Amino acid sequence: MEYLNFIPEGWVENKLDYSIDNIKEAYENGKIIQGLVYDCDSNYNLHIKLGHGIIGVIPRNEVDYIDSDEFGFTRPSICKNKLNSYVQFKIKEIYDDKQILLSRKKAHEEAFNWMINNLQEGMIVNGIVKNIRKYGVFVEIGAGVVGLLHIEDISISRIKTPEERFEIGQKINVVIKQIEKNKKQIIFSYKELCGTWEENVENYAEKMVVKGIVKETDKYKNGLFVELKPNLVGLAEYKEGYHYGQVVDVYIKKIIKDRKKIKLLIV
Q1: 79 neighbors 104 (Cβ within 8 angstroms)
Q2: Helix H or strand E encompassing 225
Q3: Contacts of 247 (CB under 8 A, 6+ apart)
Q4: Tens of pLDDT along 77-98?
Q5: Which domains does the chain have, with CATH numbers?
Q6: Most CB contacts within 10 A, which of 66, 141, 152, 226?
Q7: Distance (Å, rounded) from C-alpha 234 to C-alpha 227?
Q8: pTM of the predicted model, to two decimals?
Q9: One-letter-per-residue 3-state SS of 41-81
Q10: Rounded distance, CA 119 to CA 170, Å?
Q11: Rounded mean pLDDT, 196-209
Q12: CB-count burial class (<10 Å; 0-12, 13-18, 19+) for 144
């Protein structure tokens, strides 16, 4: 797999304090710049302090390229979630030296089009966890482009909620699993980055006592599945009184490499 930091160098300016000359230059050259959203008004327009007393406004219909209703308006919840966040945008109009019309949608569209033409399935990209739901994690990989990491693609070991692995704001690497151009969607995977069974088992040996996390019982209550690492699970002899998520000490009875199995005993 190929690792890629998808933002081309110099594509988005890192500075946050702009003079009117900087803004005019960005407008003339079609640059993407960024700023901090300090207000979301009652009409769900976003307000940004650009520097030197200059205020930029992103109208509600210019907030998001992908998630808009039939009239082109971004959902209120998305607008409100941008408050106190850094966003990228392009200059759409300069009315005077103090009032600037901005478009996050144009920056978002440019970034998305760049990605579908340059990214490939199997590449690894860096991102930030923006939201967590029961079914998965939304990860932004730049300029407002967000993809979905389904819960079943987080680890081989089953989990009940993505919050067992991630938190909002966490920086993570993800694998591009699928690019759905028509739906404007990117699907990620994470479990490939947790190491293979063979790689993980190298850190363990028979007769070791190590910590693990109880995941579930097998359907016949013949054992307890215990996670040693996200991609490494062993089966311990069944005992009453243990629950999902409990940290336990386990004794490694047997490692059967050709069958990818580990037999454990809770101690």
Answers
A1: no
A2: strand 223-229
A3: 211, 212, 213, 214
A4: 888 888 888 888 999 999 887 7
A5: 3-107 (2.40.50.140), 119-193 (2.40.50.140), 197-266 (2.40.50.140)
A6: 226
A7: 6
A8: 0.70
A9: CCCCCEEEEEECCEEEEECHHHCCCCCECCCCCECHHHHHH
A10: 22
A11: 92
A12: buried
